[in-house]
């Protein structure tokens, strides 16, 4: 066993490795042999790997209140060895924040043993890029246990029938689907959000935005513009069209 330093700190690389080990154990428990059979489910990962390995309990029935103006979504109580997820986003709510919040708190439980009496996360903790090392690492763990790079790449390429990066060349008309359905794309965020939408079910119904960031990060979509991936103005403006976009299949071309 690797001995950590006196502060019990862990490197980012070690956090990713811990997540990878959990993923491999999960796959073994599920008996999957073919990559395309693999579906990441954070609750199944918890039940089949995290609880048996770390004896961390999970409770999703309480209102966790607020921290200032921020709603508390999750807590990890180190001494009690229990993860709390706010009931407003529990699994029955079908809120995509449940997936990442649970992954985040598992990250604290697995990577930050002995570092703090408790950890608490809000939407700010999860989504803001400026945060302390422990919160960053909990997010890093969640990302890599829910959306492992190789599985995202494999599922994306299989679904869209491609073996090289899809190119984003700017706003314009793109053909999406085997039926050559033409879609007017107005930004990088719009483009990747649409590509991510039909794949979230393979990754524990993670939010489309989270999967979109991952898709761009691993390079299966290549941005050939100066645009940044910003979802602030996205809202619900594209939700009404996503069913039409994907019913025909998978191929993607640019006009």
Protein model, in words:
The chain has nine helices and ten strands. By secondary structure, the protein is of the alpha+beta class. The chain has two domains: 12-146, Arc Repressor Mutant, subunit A (Orthogonal Bundle); 150-254, no CATH class. The strands form three sheets. Strands 1, 2, 3, 4 and 5 form a five-stranded mixed β-sheet that branches. It has a three-stranded antiparallel β-sheet with strand order 8-7-10, with helices on one face. Strands 6-9 form a two-stranded parallel ribbon. The longest helix has 19 residues, at 12-30. The termini are far apart. Mean pLDDT is 84; it is low at 1-6 and 233-255.
Give the arrangement of secondary structure elements:
Elements: H1 12-30, H2 42-54, E1 57-59, E2 66-67, E3 70-77, E4 82-85, H3 97-111, E5 118-122, H4 123-127, H5 133-146, H6 149-160, E6 166-168, E7 172-176, E8 181-185, H7 188-196, H8 208-218, E9 221-223, H9 242-246, E10 252-254
Parallel strand pairs: 1-4, 6-9
Antiparallel strand pairs: 2-3, 3-4, 3-5, 7-8, 7-10
List keywords for this structure.
3-stranded antiparallel β-sheet, disordered C terminus, alpha+beta, globular, 255 residues, 5-stranded mixed β-sheet, 40% helix, disordered N terminus, single chain, Arc Repressor Mutant, subunit A, 9 helices
Summary?
With 255 residues, the protein is of the alpha+beta class.
Structural class: alpha+beta
Largest sheet: 5 strands, mixed
Question: What does the radius of gyration come to?
Answer: 19 Å
State the domain count: 2
CATH architecture of the largest domain: Orthogonal Bundle
Shape: globular
User: Helix share of residues?
Assistant: 40-55%
Order of helices and strands: HHEEEEHEHHHEEEHHEHE
Cα-to-Cα separation, first versus last residue: 55 Å
Strand proportion: 15-25%
Give the class-level CATH name of the largest domain. Answer: Mainly Alpha
Mean pLDDT comes to 84
The tally of beta strands, per DSSP, is: 10
In the CATH hierarchy, the third-tier topology of the largest domain is known as: Arc Repressor Mutant, subunit A
> Which stretches of 5+ consecutive residues score pLDDT under 50?
1-6, 233-255
- The total of helices stands at 9
């Amino acid at each position: 066993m690797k001995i950590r330093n006196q502060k019990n700190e862990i490197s980012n690389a070690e956090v990713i490795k811990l997540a990878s080990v959990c993923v491999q154990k999960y796959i073994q428990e599920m008996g999957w042999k073919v990559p395309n059979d693999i579906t990441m489910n954070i609750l199944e990962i918890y039940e089949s790997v995290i609880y048996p390995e770390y004896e961390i309990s999970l409770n999703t029935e309480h209102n966790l209140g607020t921290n200032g103006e921020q709603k508390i979504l999750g807590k990890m109580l180190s001494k009690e060895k229990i993860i709390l997820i706010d009931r407003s986003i529990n699994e029955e709510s079908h809120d995509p924040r449940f997936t990442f919040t649970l992954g985040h708190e598992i990250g604290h439980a697995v990577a930050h043993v002995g570092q703090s009496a408790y950890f608490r996360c809000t939407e700010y903790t999860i989504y803001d890029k400026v945060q302390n090392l422990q919160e960053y690492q909990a997010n890093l763990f969640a990302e890599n246990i829910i959306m492992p790079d190789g599985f995202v790449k494999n599922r994306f390429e299989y679904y869209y029938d491609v073996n090289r990066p899809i190119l984003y060349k700017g706003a314009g008309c793109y053909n999406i689907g085997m039926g050559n359905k033409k879609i007017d794309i107005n930004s990088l965020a719009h483009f990747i959000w649409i590509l991510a939408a039909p794949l979230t079910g393979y990754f524990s119904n993670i939010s489309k935005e989270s999967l979109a960031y991952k898709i761009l990060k691993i390079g299966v979509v290549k941005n050939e513009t100066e645009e940044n991936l910003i979802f602030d103005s996205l809202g619900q403006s594209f939700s009404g069209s996503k069913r039409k976009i994907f019913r025909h299949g998978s191929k993607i071309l640019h006009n």
